[in-house]
Automatic annotation (TrEMBL):
<dbReference type="InterPro" id="IPR006566">
    <property type="entry name" value="FBD"/>
</dbReference>
<feature type="domain" description="F-box">
    <location>
        <begin position="22"/>
        <end position="58"/>
    </location>
</feature>
<dbReference type="InterPro" id="IPR050232">
    <property type="entry name" value="FBL13/AtMIF1-like"/>
</dbReference>
<dbReference type="InterPro" id="IPR001810">
    <property type="entry name" value="F-box_dom"/>
</dbReference>
<dbReference type="InterPro" id="IPR032675">
    <property type="entry name" value="LRR_dom_sf"/>
</dbReference>
<dbReference type="Pfam" id="PF00646">
    <property type="entry name" value="F-box"/>
</dbReference>
<dbReference type="InterPro" id="IPR053781">
    <property type="entry name" value="F-box_AtFBL13-like"/>
</dbReference>
<dbReference type="InterPro" id="IPR036047">
    <property type="entry name" value="F-box-like_dom_sf"/>
</dbReference>
<dbReference type="Pfam" id="PF08387">
    <property type="entry name" value="FBD"/>
</dbReference>
<dbReference type="InterPro" id="IPR055411">
    <property type="entry name" value="LRR_FXL15/At3g58940/PEG3-like"/>
</dbReference>
<dbReference type="Pfam" id="PF24758">
    <property type="entry name" value="LRR_At5g56370"/>
</dbReference>
<protein>
    <recommendedName>
        <fullName>F-box domain-containing protein</fullName>
    </recommendedName>
</protein>
Amino acid sequence: MDEARRKRVRAQRSRGRGTSKVDWISDLPDSLLCQVLLNLTTKDVVRTSVLSKRWGHLWKCVPGLDLGGEDIKQYYKYVIFVDRFLDFNSEYHIESFKLSYPGDGNCETQVDLVRRWIRTVVRLGIKHLKFLDYSWGCGTFHLPRSIYTCKSLVSLKLSCVSMPCLKLVSLPYLRIIELISVKFADNLDLETLITSCAALEILLIKTNHSDGGIQVSRVRSQSLLSFTHVEENGSAKEDLVIDAPNLEYLKLKAHQTASVIIKHHGSLVSVDVNFVFNSPFHRRFDPSGLPKRDMIQNLFVAISRVKSMIISCGTLKVIYDYARCQPLPLFHNLSFLRVKFYEYLWELLPTFLESCPNLKSLILESTENLKTKGLSNFSGSQGFLPSLEHIEIKIPLKGFVMEMKFVNYFLEKSTILKKLTLCLDDSRKTEKSVVVKKLLTIPRLSPSCEVVIL
């Protein structure tokens, strides 16, 4: 313990006699305080300088920068601040560099400036790099090629930029990649980048084909644990092949992708599926299309061992139509299910529940105000729900007959249900007592079931 810290501890103990309050933060060494401050934005870190004389210059020693264009309005002040930070840390390793650039991109000097900053942090051994560029046209700013050979990099998060042509990759410690509206020279560059990162565990790719975003066609990684693929305004209709034998979490939102082929699926634990096999929303699945039936069958088999699932109403439509012509695989391990509705298409749900014999928890929610289509269509199913213990319907109920039938279905078919949580629509507050009375008088098959109305 250095002499300055000993003095602080003695002074604290002297002040603390007779009181139970202890300022443990003041006893922490500067190095540990800097690591704590690393979790704050730079704007908040600078604010700590007013706390005491000790904190007055401590913020300068934080090995990270998290600065958005809105934090410093004047462009020249923004540039001066970043340059001073890099100059102060020119002999140290930088842990984190998160930048949202405020320039307008009309000056070549600005482009060179940002590239210089990125090359500098790469040279200083950056671990966590996040760069968001909303000033140029989407993908017109090209990152320097040194980004591919930053051997210290642990996480890379980029948005609205273009990657340079890939010639050499050396990213031995890169664990996290997040790419949002990022452009590559071609599909092979993205595939090579993923394959070359031997430590990669988390991959997130969001593409927007209206901006000329790249089509993700193959993800191949021996180390990958989590993969999120979100496709907005898709126009490409290619297959997506996932070859990741250790994958545990998969999120898919890709309405225009023709099919998803999962080569190794034994390790999958959790999935979030919003996928319609390139079927337009206004058109139902055609059961006579054998190739599409096979693609759907293969995907459902691949995810049939998961324990947790989030599924969209669109995917539920595909399941419902598919089940009319071919049996669904059983989801024996599924214990948690969350369904997101955008229409009152609740008649789609029982078909899928029949394939989940060990489901324990079910959450139903809406992404927006539900459309009234399908209000009178719900009739439930004849089978019981023998494993469900907890049901939460987060969709505000308005007292429609179809809603009452829906609640009635769960209460009369769930043999061991412990708790059913409901919520009422605010617009029906004047009728609340009537609706509540109707809900509470519905017979319950499970004698231990508790109905909670929010």
